[in-house]
């Protein structure tokens, strides 16, 4: 996503007729990109669990910061629903608004409600349940080996592009029945990245259109020649989804499998390479990859904020008056670090009650989190096994985060190691 300029603490005049947003804070700025936890603390101190914020173009919204408040919003679809056509700001939103891929209504499972959502989510759940987790782990390990072999002999690598992004992308498209490699697949992944997390000069709306066209072609191919893949299982499901519904839902599945999992892998590698608790060798009692993966979901979750929910009627939340049609941004990262649930700032490896996969009926459909865990765990374990003396090639403080309020991921992760020749 493109970011508004200016300080993250910059106050702005409220839009007409919106007195609640007189203290609205623009979500952006360099300080926020590098240390968003500071912004969340500041917002919580000043505004409480629900803060008035301004999105791109100074469009007002509410950022839900509290753990219990995010849980409440996501658990009460009758008050805070997913159909964005309720939004009371549409007259202010241009067609090329950077967040349009997220909020523009589409006939996708993401925007459905009630019985229709249960029907669509049920198809996705059953299609994903058909994925053999042992087979996925084996495929992910094979993809990891091939990616590592491409740079192992050089003794250095930039892991974001050469490994962390490439691996879940190839695993996800393979699960859906696309070839693991090739120009076509690479173009799809590039367009997914742009639509989810555009850099300056990128066109997220155009990229999202190209994603839809490629998935449309995949569905057409699988309609003619079904196989043992997620797309074919969705097409053959007795619920009888239309091709257009399947296209939209596949985009949701692939996008959720690729970008967040890539950042989960990279954020975990960063933690293990910079935190001395993970630096000891195995015989010295190094904390496990599983513990690192879980800690990242609590403290550096890949999906920082999610837009959003729209108020069905006038209501109250966290002491705020929410009007019908107001947009609420789910502050997943802020909720995970809410001092109300972590008064001692301690994250236990056994605790997985984080909100990184959201909560309620619209959370990531089971078993998607398990499949993401298989891919991420295999990626990290395989890399550390193949390159046991892996270290950062720069000082930890030199690592920079992507300029996004939505995804938490590094710009790059340069490493060095003893060259391995096969």
Automatic annotation (TrEMBL):
MF term (GO), any: heme binding
CDD domains listed in its UniProt record: CYP_unk
InterPro entries, alphabetized: Cyt_P450_B, Cyt_P450_sf
Top-rank taxon, per record: Bacteria
Residue ranges of the region described as Disordered: 1-24
Coiled coil: none
Biased composition (Polar residues): 1-10
Family of the protein in this entry: Belongs to the cytochrome P450 family.
Descriptive protein name: Cytochrome P450
């Amino acid at each position: 996503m493109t970011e508004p300029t200016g300080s993250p603490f910059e106050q702005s005049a409220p839009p007409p007729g919106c007195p609640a947003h007189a203290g609205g804070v623009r979500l952006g700025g360099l300080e926020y990109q590098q240390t968003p936890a500071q912004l969340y603390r500041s917002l919580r101190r000043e505004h409480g669990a629900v803060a008035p914020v301004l999105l791109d173009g100074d469009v007002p919204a509410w950022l839900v910061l509290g753990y219990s408040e995010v849980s409440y919003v996501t658990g009460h679809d009758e008050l805070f629903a997913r159909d964005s056509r309720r939004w009371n700001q549409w007259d202010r939103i241009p067609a090329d608004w950077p967040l349009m891929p997220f909020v523009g209504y589409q006939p996708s499972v993401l925007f459905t409600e009630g019985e229709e959502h249960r029907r669509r989510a049920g198809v996705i759940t059953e299609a994903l349940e058909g994925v053999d987790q042992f087979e996925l782990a084996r495929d992910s390990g094979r993809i990891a080996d091939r990616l590592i072999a491409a740079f192992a002999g050089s003794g250095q690598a930039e892991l974001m592009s050469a490994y962390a992004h490439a691996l879940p992308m190839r695993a996800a498209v393979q699960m859906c029945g696309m070839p693991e490699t090739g120009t076509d697949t690479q173009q799809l992944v590039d367009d997914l990245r742009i639509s989810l997390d555009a850099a300056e000069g990128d066109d997220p709306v155009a990229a999202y259109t190209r994603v839809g066209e490629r998935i449309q072609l995949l569905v057409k191919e699988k309609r003619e020649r079904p196989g043992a893949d997620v797309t074919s299982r969705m097409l053959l499901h007795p619920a009888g989804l239309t091709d257009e519904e399947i296209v939209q839902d596949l985009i949701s599945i692939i996008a959720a499998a690729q970008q967040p999992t890539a950042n989960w892998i990279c954020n975990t590698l960063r933690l293990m390479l910079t935190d001395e608790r993970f630096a000891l060798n195995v015989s010295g009692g190094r904390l496990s990859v599983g513990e690192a993966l879980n800690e990242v979901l609590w403290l550096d979750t890949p999906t920082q904020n999610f837009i959003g929910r729209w108020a069905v009627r006038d209501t109250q939340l966290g002491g705020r008056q929410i009007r019908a049609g107001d947009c609420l941004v789910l502050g997943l990262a802020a909720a995970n670090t809410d001092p109300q649930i972590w008064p001692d700032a301690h994250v236990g490896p056994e605790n997985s009650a984080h909100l990184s996969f959201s909560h309620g009926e619209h959370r990531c459909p089971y078993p998607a989190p398990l499949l993401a865990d298989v891919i991420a765990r295999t990626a990290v374990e395989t890399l550390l096994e193949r390159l046991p003396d892996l270290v950062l090639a720069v000082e930890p403080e030199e690592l920079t985060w992507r300029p996004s309020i939505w995804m938490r991921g590094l710009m790059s992760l340069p490493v060095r190691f003893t060259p391995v020749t096969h």
